[in-house]
Structures are given as structure tokens and as C-alpha cells.
Design a protein that fits this description.
The complex is a heterodimer of chains A (234) and B (451). Chain A is of the alpha/beta class and 234 residues long. Chain A has 2 domains: 159 residues, 3-Layer(aba) Sandwich (Rossmann fold), CATH 3.40.50.300; 65 residues, no CATH class. In chain A, α3 packs across α4, α4 crosses α5 and α5 runs parallel beside α6. Chain A is globular, with a radius of gyration of 17 Å. Chain B contains 14 helices and 11 strands. The longest helix of chain B is centred in the C-terminal third of the chain and has 44 residues. Chain B is of the alpha+beta class and 451 residues long. Classes of the chains: A alpha/beta (234), B alpha+beta (451). Chains A and B meet through α2 and α3 of A and α1, α11, α12 and α14 of B. Bound molecules: adenosine-5'-triphosphate and magnesium ion. Magnesium ion binds next to α1 of chain A.
Chain lengths: 234, 451
């Protein structure tokens, strides 16, 4: 099942179990999910349903205890940890609920960090940082530190950081969770714009059904680690 | 990650925790300083001891004698001439010794009791001949005035005790003249032995006469410590004059008389010659060479060897002692880096989420550790050197109060500087080993889970 034509990420009967002494916690249990290239998928579910766990598995941040994940046709389970790091660096961009910017670095330095890790030439970096910040309309805040920005601006900076290495997959874990609804909506509009302009594949975790229904192409609902619905938005 | 980025991020991290990083670095510096101070003390003391001992003439000299006493004992009392394979210790032998490799000089020890007149008052004292080589070898460090102007100068250096006998203000003696009265030995024409009025003692020696003489010498220096050169050297001399002058005085040395009688060729024969080697380690070869030439030799070679062994063990103990502080500093580095992991959990998680490999995280911690090690090493060398200077200063203040010449007991050779810095970096890297691998193994999902 490694058909990559049109499929960006494919979770094939994926499980992530945690063994807590005698008990087994099935954070993700036998989930199969296909995300098509250029698709915007929302992972919906209540707290503890396994959304983040599934997202981390697809982003190569964690390894499944069962099943397999294919990204651009490659089985992530077969990658060494160095290759997995490379996958996170070149193919994946990530955005978190709590922004996760490094507080002591300026915006410019924060956005430059993935370029350092991907060993992009110094000469090229300035333009890449500029481009990414322009895309989220923060090009005037280069020398500011995260604490000098509003929540929405911080999330936009995090988005710029996720895009700077020009990945094909964007994983966002409740990107609007720490923002008021108006600001959250502006972030969603930005994600939509990125999907449409860059043709990026986006998987976004949220527990706000209205937001998912408005912006995502498709909703995959999780409950207790199991996939409930997996359908295209009507 | 590329080396440049790694370095930048590491320095940045160290700067962000500036207090903790600098305290850790200081810990390394103190450890290295302790190591440098102890080792440089060991090296300095060794150099000092070696210098003093080689100046003493005990370790870099070979005493050469004729193989006579042993042989004559074996052959019985009737046979008193040297054995056939034993050679006469005459001027020819002396020249041969001088031609041997690594020989600095060969001299006979000239020392005799004499009477000195200064300001018309007579004093009896012992004159010793000083070889020209004493000028440069440190025996006369701390002299008041100066060394002889030349090997043939009619000049004298007074031992301080003797100078005090001559004057209450010894330093005022420099530049003044004194008169040495000595007995000159003169070979008598064969008929002279029958001359009435000749001294009875002279007749016994078979053709020598002792004639009293006087010589004027200018005082050029006063020496506080007692210089020595070889066994029975000029150590006990109180009036020191150039060796050639002393020899030319042809003083009535007891040994010379006896030797002159026994020389079969009629040439003067030395009771013993002192052969000085370039360094103590070269004594062995010279001694063997002279032995095969048919002479008896004596040196303190074994003593130098045990001295070397002693200092090697001494240095090793100092190294262990000094290393203890460095070991404590190592714990400091480990502690700092482990604390940094706890504090930077989230940051490490973010780095990994952004694509950092385990290797990148590990290297980052290693670079941080080695930067602290390098800085600590350099600082430590400087601290250690300063400690050495301070202690030397203190010792010299004390020595000066005791009217002793200053000494340098610490020595920081270049290899020690390198060793200390390299050791500090290696120790820091070793200390970084555990924290770095722990940081690299950190699970990013867990690191990012909690706020
Ligand atoms: N390291 C772990 N050890 C044990 N259980 C874990 C671990 N990580 C996650 N879990 C459990 O797995 C389940 C799914 O967690 P996950 O974080 O994926 O939920 P979520 O859907 O993202 O919830 P939320 O909306 O609150 O973020 C939870 O019950 C959680 O307690
Ligand atoms: Mg979650």
C-alpha cells in the first residue's frame, strides 16, 4: 500500500500504545487515514482522544507501536532516527498550540533556526527568512523577541518558522487553541491561503467543530484512539 | 548542523546562562590552576635542586686517580711504583681527558693553607683555586662585586666569614689589595742538596727547596654562600683566586710533594684530577672512557639517578594531588550540563521538532562543555602562573630577610601550558559525555507535552 500518487500521508492501521505497568493505554488504536496531496484535513475529537498522538506519529516525532505510516510513499518506520530527523527538517513543518518560539531569540533568529538545522547556506538564509515572514506579514518585526508580540503574531511567526524550509506537509496542533476567536480566525485564513497558494498538505488538530467545518476539506473524528468518521466535508 | 552554527548556538546558550556557565568555567579554572601550580612547583624544585647539585660539582664531575693504592697493596709494600697497565696521571693524561667528548674542563684541585696580610695584620687562611668555568655555572650567583676579570688575574674573592675577619664592613674591602704569603717549591740543582743550611725537610723530598714568597692580590668580590666544586673542592676555601694563579703559585701541597717523588718519569704527577662533564647525565660515558684508559675513577652517578627517580615520583604525586581539584571541576561541569538539560527540556524538544537530529543535540552540548573547558583551561593556566608568582614573591621576601639570594621555585614550561589546556578540554568533553547523550535521547513528544 505504498501508492504515493496523490496521497501525501497514509496511516495504515496505526497504533500507539503506552504500557503503564499492567495497564495498556491505547492513545491511538488501529487507525487508518489517507491524506491526499494538497488536502486540508482537520483531526477532531475531545481531549485525550489521541489527536496529538496521531499527529506526532505522522510528523515523524514519534514512532508507532503497530501499523505503518507512509509519507510521500516512504515508510517512516523504516527510517533511521537520523533519516527521520531529516524528514522532519525537509518535508514537515509544525505549528503548536503554545507557539513554542525560543524566547531569547529574535523573530529573525527563530525563523532562521530550521535553516541552520537543515544546513542551508548562510548566503541564502536572509532571503528565505524574509520570504517566510512576508508570507505571514511580519516582515517588519525581524528584531523583536516573542514576548514583544501578541499571541496571534507569535503564532504567525511560528507559522513562518514552519514554512521557511519549504516543506510539503504542514502539521498544526490546535494552532488557535491559545487565541481569541477573531485572532484564531485570522490564523485559519492564513492556513487556508498557504494551502491554496503553495499547494501544501495540511493536517490540523482542533476540538472546535465549527472551525474545522469552515476551513478544512475533510474532517477525521477521533474518540478514545479510534477513528470515527473519515469523510469529505459535505 | 554545520560547525559554525553549532558554535554560535553553543556560545549563545552559554551566554544565556552566563552566571552558571562562568561559575562552572571558574571551577575548571581553579582545578587547572591547582594542577599547574603543583606541577610547576615540582618542576621548579627539580630544576632548583638539579642546578644547585650540579653547581656543587658533586654530580657532573669524575674524580680521576692513578690506579695505585689497590695495586700496591696487592703486590705488597715493597712494590710502590704504579702497575704496568696503570698510567701516570700527568699532563699528557690531562690533555687526553680534555679531548674526550662532553668534557668541559679538567683541573687539579689547588688548595693550601697560607698567611695573608691586610693592613699589616697577618691572618692565616686557606686559598683555593677557582676554575674559569665557575664564572658561568651559578656557583657565584649572588656575589658582591664581581668575578675575576680573567683566568690569570691577580685578584681574589673573599668568603664572607673571612671578609668579616678582615673588616667590620666587608663590602668596603672590594677594590683593596691584600698580600698572600706562600711557600714556593723550587727544584734544587743536584749539588744544592748538599748545601749546608738547606732545610732538612727539603732534603728528604730529594731535591726541592721551599722558598717563602709574597703576592699582592686585588679583592674583586665577596661571596656569601660557600661555592663548592667536587669532592674536597674549594668549598672550604676562604680566599678564592683564579685556578691558574693558584697553580702558578706552585704552593707546597702535601700531595704534590709525594707524587713528585713517585713519578717514575720525573714529570709532575697529579694526586687527582677533576673532570667536569657538560651535564650530570654524561658522567657515565666519560667515567667508562677514563677507566679503559687505565685510571681509577669515582663519581656520584647513582645518586643522580635516584634523584631523578625521586623527582619523577614527586611529580606524579603532585599531579595526582593537583588533579583532585580538576576532578571536582569535572563534577561541576556534569552538574551544570545536567541542570541545563532539565531547564532546556522544552528547547531541546522544539529543536528536535524542527528537524534537529540526536547528533546535533549531542554536539551542541559537547561544544558547550568544551568551550567551558577551553576557557577554564586558559584561565587556569593564568591563575596557576599567578599563584606561582605570588608564592615565589613571598618566598623571596622571606629569603631576603634571611639575607639569602632569591630563587625561583616555580617553573611553568610551555609543555605544561599545553598539557593543562588539553587536559581541561578532554576532561570537559568527558564530563559532557553523559549529559550530552541524555539530552540527545530526550523524547521530543514528552519534552513538548508540558508547558
Ligand atoms: N507518554 C504517555 N504515557 C502514557 N499515556 C500517554 C502518554 N502520552 C499520551 N498518553 C495518553 O494518550 C491519550 C491521548 O493523548 P493525546 O495527547 O493524543 O490526546 P489529545 O487528543 O491530543 O488531547 P488534548 O485535546 O487534550 O490535547 C491520553 O489519554 C493520554 O493520557
Ligand atoms: Mg493534544
Amino acid at each position: 500500500m505504498t501508492t504515493s500518487n496523490g496521497v501525501a500521508v497514509h496511516a495504515d492501521r496505526v497504533s500507539r500504545h503506552y504500557e503503564m505497568g499492567a495497564a495498556v493505554i491505547r492513545a491511538v488504536d488501529d487507525v487508518s487515514l489517507e491524506v491526499r496531496s494538497g488536502e486540508f484535513v482537520a483531526l477532531l475529537g475531545s481531549s485525550g482522544s489521541g489527536k496529538s498522538t496521531l499527529l506526532n506519529l505522522m510528523a515523524g516525532l514519534d514512532r508507532p507501536t503497530g501499523g505503518a505510516i507512509f509519507a510521500n510513499g516512504r515508510n517512516l518506520s523504516e527510517l533511521s532516527s537520523l533519516e527521520l530527523a531529516r524528514y522532519r527538517s525537509r518535508t514537515v513543518g509544525m505549528v503548536f498550540q503554545s507557539f513554542n518560539l525560543l524566547p531569547r531569540m529574535t523573530l529573525e533568529e527563530n525563523v532562521e533556526l530550521p535553516l541552520r538545522l537543515a544546513e542551508v547556506d548562510r548566503a541564502e538564509r536572509g532571503a528565505r527568512v524574509q520570504e517566510a515572514l512576508e508570507r505571514v506579514r511580519l516582515e517588519k518585526r525581524l528584531t523583536h523577541r516573542p514576548s514583544e508580540l501578541s499571541g496571534g503574531e507569535q503564532q504567525r511567526a511560528a507559522l513562518a518558522r514552519a514554512l521557511v524550509n519549504r516543506p510539503t506537509l504542514l502539521f498544526a496542533d490546535e494552532p488557535t487553541g491559545n487565541l481569541d476567536s477573531a485572532t484564531g480566525e485570522s490564523i485559519m485564513l492564513l492556513l487556508k491561503e498557504i494551502q491554496q497558494k503553495l499547494g501544501m498538505t495540511i493536517v490540523m488538530v482542533t476540538h472546535e467543530r465549527p472551525l474545522a467545518e469552515r476551513f478544512a476539506d475533510r474532517i477525521a473524528a477521533l474518540a478514545d484512539g479510534k477513528l470515527l468518521t473519515d469523510g469529505v466535508k459535505s | 548542523m554545520k560547525a559554525g552554527d553549532l558554535g554560535e548556538l553553543a556560545l549563545r546558550n552559554l551566554r544565556e546562562a552566563v552566571l552558571r556557565s562562568s561559575l562552572t568555567t571558574l571551577g575548571v579554572a581553579v582545578g587547572v590552576a591547582s594542577l599547574v601550580a603543583w606541577l610547576s612547583l615540582g618542576i621548579g624544585l627539580q630544576a632548583l635542586a638539579t642546578k644547585r647539585l650540579s653547581n656543587s660539582g658533586l654530580f657532573d664531575t669524575v674524580i680521576v686517580t692513578q690506579r695505585r693504592s689497590l695495586q700496591s697493596m696487592r703486590r705488597g709494600p715493597a712494590e710502590s711504583s704504579p702497575a704496568k697497565n696503570a698510567r701516570a696521571l700527568d699532563d699528557d693524561a690531562k690533555k687526553e681527558f680534555e679531548r674526550l667528548p662532553n668534557v668541559v674542563e679538567v683541573y687539579s684541585q689547588v688548595r693550601f693553607p697560607t698567611e695573608v696580610r691586610y693592613n699589616g695584620t697577618p691572618y692565616s687562611t686557606i686559598v683555593a683555586g677557582i676554575p674559569e668555568s665557575a664564572r658561568g655555572n651559578g656557583s657565584f650567583d649572588g656575589i658582591q662585586g664581581g668575578f675575576f676579570s680573567g683566568a690569570n688575574a691577580d685578584e681574589a674573592i673573599l668568603q664572607i666569614e673571612f671578609a668579616r675577619d678582615l673588616s667590620t664592613q666587608p663590602s668596603s674591602l672590594i677594590g683593596k689589595d691584600l698580600i698572600v704569603r706562600y711557600a714556593e717549591r723550587q727544584a734544587l740543582p743536584p749539588e744544592a742538596g748538599r748545601t749546608p743550611g738547606g732545610h732538612a725537610a727539603d732534603r728528604e723530598t730529594g731535591g726541592f727547596s721551599i722558598v717563602p714568597r709574597e703576592k699582592k692580590l686585588r679583592i674583586v668580590g665577596i661571596i656569601e654562600t660557600e661555592p663548592a666544586a667536587g669532592f674536597g673542592g674549594f668549598g672550604s676555601g676562604r680566599l678564592l683566586i683564579p685556578l691558574e694563579v693558584a697553580s702558578s703559585l706552585r704552593a707546597a701541597q702535601v700531595n704534590d710533594l709525594r707524587d713528585a717523588v713517585r713519578a717514575p718519569t720525573g714529570k709532575p704527577v697529579y694526586a687527582s684530577l677533576t673532570v667536569r662533564a657538560k651535564s650530570a647525565s654524561l658522567v657515565g660515558g666519560i667515567e667508562t672512557a677514563i677507566k679503559t684508559m687505565g685510571f681509577g675513577t669515582f663519581s656520584l652517578q647513582d645518586a643522580t639517578k635516584s634523584l631523578e627517580v625521586f623527582f619523577r615520583i614527586f611529580d606524579m604525586l603532585l599531579f595526582i594531588f593537583g588533579s583532585l581539584a580538576l576532578a571536582v571541576a569535572t563534577l561541576g561541569i556534569i552538574n551544570t550540563l545536567v541542570m541545563a538539560i532539565l531547564e532546556r527540556r522544552r528547547e531541546i524538544g522544539i529543536l528536535k521538532a524542527l528537524g534537529a537530529a540526536d547528533r546535533d543535540v549531542k554536539q551542541l552540548f559537547f561544544v558547550e562543555a568544551s568551550v567551558m573547558g577551553l576557557l577554564g583551561g586558559v584561565l587556569g593556566v593564568v591563575f596557576g602562573w599567578l599563584v606561582g608568582r605570588a608564592v615565589t614573591f613571598g618566598i623571596n621576601v622571606y629569603l631576603k630577610r634571611q639575607s639569602l639570594p632569591p630563587t625561583d621555585v616555580f617553573s611553568v614550561p610551555f609543555w605544561l601550558v599545553l598539557l593543562a589546556i588539553v587536559l581541561a578540554v578532554l576532561v570537559s568533553l568527558a564530563a559532557g559525555l553523559y549529559p550530552a547523550s541524555r539530552a540527545a535521547k530526550l523524547n521530543p513528544v514528552e519534552a513538548l507535552r508540558y508547558e
